[in-house]
Amino acid sequence: MSATGIGLAVLIDDNDIDLFVQKRFIEINNFAKQVITFRSPVDALDFFEKANELPEIILLDLNMPVMDGFEFLDKYLQFPEKITGCSKVVVLTSSSSVTDRERAQTYPCVIGFVSKPMEVKNLNDIRDYFQSEAEKKTTIVVEKK
């Protein structure tokens, strides 16, 4: 994560209006340097298979035709760790189902569950998560003798 935010974010949602609104919201709030959108989880999986640059964050809708968000996660986690280890997932959905929330939290890559529409607080929480993870990686422990 850079000082200005996330480098690359991927947004997966079958609804054109939701894609437009959420992408614009992310851009206005300087959350990510680049946002790539997919209307189809299948297209997103193809991207992950071939991408040179992987996103730090995937914002994933659950309720989509052909392949839902859970099916996407199942297939995504079959990729090698060099792919799945680069990205964290935030479920971004209109679903208020407790069952969906609990199920989403069983996936090791899922760090959050956000109800649409996304709010500035949600972006700040995600930033805070990445900042704390970055600090954990850069903390140096000096032992005194």
Overall description:
The chain is an alpha/beta fold and 145 residues long. The chain is built from 6 helices and 5 strands. It has helices at residues 16-28, 41-50, 69-76, 81-84, 98-104, 120-138, and strands spanning 6-12, 32-38, 57-60, 88-93, 110-115. Strands 2-1-3-4-5 form a 5-stranded parallel beta sheet. It has one domain: 3-Layer(aba) Sandwich (Rossmann fold), CATH 3.40.50.2300. The longest helix is centred in the C-terminal third of the chain and has 19 residues, at 120-138. The model has no long low-confidence stretch (mean pLDDT 89).
Please summarize what this structure is.
By secondary structure, the protein is α/β, with parallel strands linked by helices.
Report the CATH C-level class.
Alpha Beta
CATH topology: Rossmann fold
**In order across it, which strands form the biggest sheet?**
2-1-3-4-5
What is the fourth-level CATH superfamily? Response regulator
Order of helices and strands: EHEHEHHEHEH
CATH architecture: 3-Layer(aba) Sandwich
Shape descriptor reads globular
Mean pLDDT: 89
Assembly classification: single chain
* Terminal CA distance: 35 Å
Main sheet record:
5 strands, parallel
Q: Give me the Rg, rounded.
A: 16 Å
List low-confidence stretches: none
List how many beta strands DSSP finds: 5
Find the structural class using helix and strand composition: alpha/beta
